[in-house]
Amino acid sequence: MDILLVASAFNSLTQRVFAELGDRGHRVGLELALGDDPLREAVRRTAPDLIVAPMLRTAIPPDIWSAHVCLIVHPGPVGDRGPSSLDWAIHTGATEWGVTVLQASGEMDGGAVWASARCPVPATVGKSDLYRNEVSDAALEAVLLAVERFASGTYVPRPQETSGPGTEVCVRPYFEQSLRRVDWASDPTETVLRKLRGADSQPGVLDGLLEEEWYLHGGHAEDSLRGRPGELLATRSGAVCRATVDGAVWIPELRPRRRAGGPATFKLPAALALGDRLPALPEVAAPGEPLGERSAGLRTWSDIRYHEDGQVGFLSFTFPGGAMSTEQCRRLLTAYRLACARPTTVLVLGGSRDFFSNGIHLNVIEAAADPAQESWENINAMDDLVEAVLTTTDRLVVSALGGNAAAGGAMLALAADQVWCRSGAVLNPHYRLMGLYGSEYWTYTLPRRVGTEQAERLTRRALPVTAARAREIGLVDVVIDSTPQDFGSAVARHAARLASAPGTQQGISEKKAARERDEALTPLSTYRERELARMRATFFDPGAPYHALRAAFVRKVKPSSTPDHLRSGTSPGAQPLTGHSSGSL
Ligand code: COA
């Protein structure tokens, strides 16, 4: 079918729907919802069989939904209505939630139901992690079913009220900041954490801190630090620890409140955001740092962790938004080197839920006194890490992607001997949209995996790739079909099997020999120098589009029109959507 996606942004779920429908042979195009007239024009131009809105913050005009079936993905169970469904799910402590695919109608979220799916709500995850994982899985299931039902030509969608037992309509209002406010003098730790998780990653919890107003982003439990409620107690790896009435929480990122008429603000690691305002606080390492090895039962936050099980080492890391600053790359490299000093046969890199990595930290770069220099240091720190992975020849290294990876973060994964990926992950192995040539030794690793032609296509087209498609083209080796919560244990089982497999020792010897052969042909340093020469030229050219693209990205500036590669583009599996005149269905 010809399917037009309409979305407020080409966000993670929209990317996944776009790529998954394309994999199934549909012709898919995308139009950003930037106004009724451009949308009308896109519908006229593409004459789609079906319109699907995976993430839409505005209403589709009546003349479009009365002439075309428009399916709206609502991130709430059948009967749920309103713009803040997931915020309410977390606020009310729901353990199960759902996604409903509705037909657009005159009533917001009130249309007939084409399909729905349920999903669990794990107790400790933030809202955007929930959205990119459990909700995304449920949304895909419901969208695919709805598309199939529409294609059958016979399915009649059901009014919400008659869609099954327990589906009474529940309209929940916009989730105001007043509901998110933390009362440090009385809210117990669990309440504070729930408020922080319900606001993560956006909009954050507005709060007063050190005489100024900030949005708090992210929240994690602390085991032992205690103090006067509301007081800052310590820093750790850029995060700050703040006392509650019965414990303390770690807050990784802050964003200053935007002043009236002032420029948009953006998130930064908390200690960096506070800068000189930060009082003298102890830097309290997590138990077991820098490697991050820890005793079972501890909840305290750290963004890098290590543990071993038999012959397998697991080095996991979780950076907000998957962004890796110079400092984060360096800490991960230190931990990686320590992990490599352990007597293991297999080292798993990653394996946590959600983002694997999205490359260099564009927000930290944007905030730097000299963004060009910070870009340069960040890419070098990324390259040092990638180089360490590429030159590990005494064990097998596995990248385990529980969630999405993009740009240099996707290339970091490719440095490992094997890439394992959760079935719901979406990969964006390209840099073009940020105006960059890219580094992370991608000119070595990407063609090595997919061939020169495919590498050129992936980087030029700059489209998202599903895990299944990535497996087909050799970008990943293993697709792990698990829930987001079970991914870690599934990886552990696969890794244990790999470590004890009869061919593994020989595989390690062969990889060492292959690395030596490749090095003799073209040294790794040559790839790095060539890539970095291009990156340097971009970073230090104030007129290079990268600087404006980065500034717009971190401030979430809406594009003025739908990018051409999405409008005419389609996922790597299918044909472009250009309207019926260009080809038969
Ligand atoms: N630096 C800083 N922040 C980043 C980031 C990066 N490299 N990549 C993602 N983020 C942040 C986003 O700003 C967003 O923040 P929010 O939660 O406050 O809204 C969050 O991570 C999630 O990203 P988002 O864009 O909402 O996710 P998505 O799944 O819709 O899109 C990407 C994912 C990777 C396609 C998109 O984030 C992107 O293009 N990132 C930049 C990649 C890049 O160019 N890296 C630099 C070159 S190596």
TrEMBL record:
Residues 559-585 have a biased composition (Polar residues). Signal peptide: none annotated. Residues 558-585 are annotated as: Disordered. Residues 178-257 form the Formyl transferase C-terminal domain. InterPro entries: ClpP/crotonase-like_dom_sf, Enoyl-CoA_hydra/iso, Formyl_trans_C, Formyl_transf_N, Formyl_transf_N_sf, Formyl_transferase-like_C_sf, HoxX-like, NiFe-hyd_mat_HypX/HoxX. It comes from the Bacteria. GO terms for molecular function: catalytic activity. It holds the Pfam family Formyl_trans_C. Residues 36-137 form the Formyl transferase N-terminal domain. This is Hydrogenase maturation protein. It comes from Streptomyces niveus (Streptomyces spheroides). The lineage of its organism: Bacteria, Bacillati, Actinomycetota, Actinomycetes, Kitasatosporales.
